Amino acid sequence: MASQANSSSVAFKIAENDIPGASLAGRKPAELKNEELRFWLKCRGDPGKGLKTKAELVKRVEEYIETGRDQDIVDPDPNSLYTRRKEQHQSSSSVSSDSGQQRRVKFPESGWSTSLTNMPMFTRAEMNNHVTKSGKSISNQDHHSVPTGLRKAKTFLEDEYLHEIEATSDQRYFYFRAKCCHSFPGTVGFCNHVLALMLKSCKYTLYDCKSTKDLCQDQDQNPGVACTSELQKWHNKGGGKNIVSQPVMEVQVNKTRLDEARTRPGVRSLLYEARVNNVHDKEKEHLLKTKLKELSPNMGLAQMADDNVDENLVETKFGKCQVGSLLSYQVAFTESNFTATADINTVPRQQGVNCQEMNFPRFPLRNELDMDIPDNLTDAQKKVLDKLMIDEDKINEVEKATRQQAECDKWKDERCYRFTASRFNLIRKRKRNHDNFAQTLMHPKPFTSKYVDHGRKYEPVALLEYEKFMQSRKNSS
Predict the structure, then answer these.
(1) Predicted model pTM
(2) Does residue 187 surpass a pLDDT of 60?
């Protein structure tokens, strides 16, 4: 693949023909897709914000055409790629060329390297020109969309068909070559691998690469090292939400032939579901203990044959176990070093020994300095200021009445007119609609979330498990 290299600067004005997809090319706006309509508006400086349906996009395009604003073209690329291309194109047209005769390009045999120092600008516009002249057109329509036609070339690039990309140049052309699979159409320039290499060249121009190795780690290029020779990547996340774990017994692999009838079921796992739902059957357990007692009365499980009461359980590091079992004393929180002669739990205890409410100390507040108040306050401002002032007794009274926080109505009423630190950043960024914003802060909508409901529901369970965990750590240490 070769392209001409020139460098100079000429004043110019960009037109819609300089940007692929910026012109309707005789088509009606309704014939374009949503992405093509958005790109058309973007070339006119309209980001299309708020336009969600195709009808809204078509209406906006027709408004531009009726008012004549469709001729005001701007560069849609943030890096001014089309502007730089137009500049290079005009500068190259000022240089004298051959007398209309097409020069035959001789591919060089030496001088290949990974350097891109003399590479000219290469964009999708050059690819559009190549597609038009080489016969790689889309369907039989006079006007077609280049992004749709290059879909297969983009697929070739993403599937890592290219590797070992090299470049060289002479006084007139800049050359690219890469290794890929053998393709007979590629000998005349119609192969999609050539278009894939062109897409890669566009990325070199876009990122101002100095070498073909600058983007060698991208997913669209075949890596130089096999995956078995690289370090582990288990810590890297894959497709994120696109990857969903499934049981291997439910996975079935088929070929992607959607139009044809399937004659084979595909590849699937021959494993059967060996996992069963373990259900504790007390009758079968009692029957097993009875048979064991008949075989060997001195066996440990045989001694527990008559013990079928659920209350005879003891707490261990791995949950509750039956009294007398191996786990009841081997994994107990505190191993017993004496023989118990009485059940302490049967001793009656007096309930409510210490039912007195705990009194917290008062806040050590001191009003040594009076607040400086301006003299030019109105009566309404003074009234608001007097309402905000409270004494020490009032502060301690509010603290005592709002200890339950979210479960107390008094706590919600006191927070109604107070802007907490968690709302500071939200208030700082607010620029308009302050009245509605103030009403939202004072009277917020009730917050509902399945995660919050789940946390509130299982908070006692989490506290109990945390207590068990800390108790086990204390005993183990």
Answers:
(1) 0.35
(2) no
